[in-house]
Specification:
Layout lengths: L16 E7 L2 H15 L9 E9 L3 H14 L3 E10 L6 E8 L1 H12 L3 E3 L8 E6 L3 H10 L4 E6 L1 E8 L2 E9 L6
Antiparallel strand pairs: 1-2, 1-8, 2-5, 3-4, 3-7, 4-6, 8-9
Keywords: Ligase
Pfam families: 2_5_RNA_ligase2
Protein name: 2'-5' RNA ligase family protein
Amino acid sequence: MPGIGQSGASPAPSPESLGVIISMPPALAEELGQWRETFAGSGASAVPAHITLVSGRAKGSWAEAAEHVRTIAREASPFTISLRGTGTFAPVSDVVFLKLDAGVEECVDLHARLLDGPLEHLVEFGFHPHLTIAHDLDQPAMERAETALADFGAELEVSSIGLYDYSHGGWALREELPLGGGLS
């Protein structure tokens, strides 16, 4: 899964590179993938829609970082995210995203707790939970994305987080970790 970083950025490939994300339920992922293809073409859905919690690397060993992510997942509770409308990071970054109406505090808390350990977040911008719809496209495509999804709304239950590593030239899911220690 290339490009799981916030705002389309991804850390430099290394054995210690890791990402922690919230995946979308299959039906919502398919719908959002179709929207992304509308704006950026057929390659846009190669990276499924997600919310990035950490895009970075292990400060020490992968094993220590992975165990830390497992611990945070076990200690966290499932929560609801509500996606409502669009926003943009322009002119700082050419990104159009779906805004989180509910679930922001939980995402910010998870992000902070994940970084309170052997993980580094390697994105040049501050953490702002969002779901990228379009990035690095020409201005007309960015404007179409922002306008077309301005009234978009969806809710999802977050019951797990995905732990990814960067290997063999792309992002790969290592573990889907249930929140609260339950089954995902």
